[in-house]
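Training component of the fellowship. As part of building independent skills, the fellow (R.M.) carried out the full modelling exercise for a liganded target. The chosen ligand was copper (II) ion. The inputs are recorded below so that the supervisory panel can assess the work.
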Amino acid sequence: LVCFALMANAHTYLTNLTINGTLLDEGKCIRPPWENENFPVKDVTSKDLLCRTKSMTVASADICGIQAGSNITVDLHESGPGSRALSESHRGPCIVYMAPLDSNGDGPVWFKIYEDGWDKAADTWCVNTLIANKGKLEVTIPRDIAPGNYLLRTEVIALHEANRVYGADESAGAELFPNCAQLAVYGTGTVHPSGVNIPGIYDKTQPGLHYDLWGDSTTYEIPGPTLY
Ligand SMILES: *[C@@H]1O[C@H](CO)[C@@H](O)[C@H](O)[C@H]1NC(C)=O
Ligand SMILES: *[C@@H]1O[C@H](CO)[C@@H](O)[C@H](O)[C@H]1NC(C)=O
Ligand SMILES: *[C@@H]1O[C@H](CO)[C@@H](O)[C@H](O)[C@H]1NC(C)=O
Ligand SMILES: [Cu+2]
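Fellow's submitted model of the complex:
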């Protein structure tokens, strides 16, 4: 039982944002509050795929201001400040999406702003880089998007059980770790990017989610739409 309790938390979640070079307090602008939300989403048709919560009614109290075109650093950790990003066994890509905040994540609103998969030559996955960078991932907010409030959705996908399609047995399938944050984007942009539905974008059988880490693949296809 103790072992199960530990394993249940041995994944990763979004802890802190760094904006304008300043590390913000743990949980600031992050949605939902992380407590009890450190679990993998395996059913990609679940509402949990949105922000790892079925209930988008629980908003963060804050919306963090950021200039379009500037960078945000997100911090992902296994069990709070100081802990590792996640287990080395959890190899896979990192993907970041945005959507207008007033959509609450519903509808074809999500556009992809960042992705990092597998560097075959170096045999390095985004997760390896994330662990080496002590959980930090730096992402650029597109310069040309219209000012306004947005959801930022970070996603790490762990492929260690993804050689079997989700549902094939109890542990089969990729582990997805989505988290969201609330941002107020400033700038002079005018673009309202078209988007996709979450859930709805992924299929458990697609090659980016059904993938054998130890097989003889020479490529990895990052799931989701093309980059904005
Ligand atoms: C996140 O912020 C808290 C302060 O709220 C700080 O103690 C902690 O070290 C920060 N976490 C990381 C990973 O920097
Ligand atoms: C970052 O700087 C912008 C000005 O460029 C400001 O509007 C915003 O509130 C700052 N964000 C934080 C979190 O301090
Ligand atoms: C912003 O982040 C990108 C990676 O997404 C990086 O290439 C770039 O150097 C960063 N820019 C600054 C000013 O730190
Ligand atoms: Cu895990």
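The panel noted the following from the submitted structure. The pocket of 2-acetamido-2-deoxy-beta-D-glucopyranose (ligand 1) is lined by residues 15-16, 23, 25-26, 75, 77, 81, 135 (CB under 6 Å). The chain has two helices and twelve strands.
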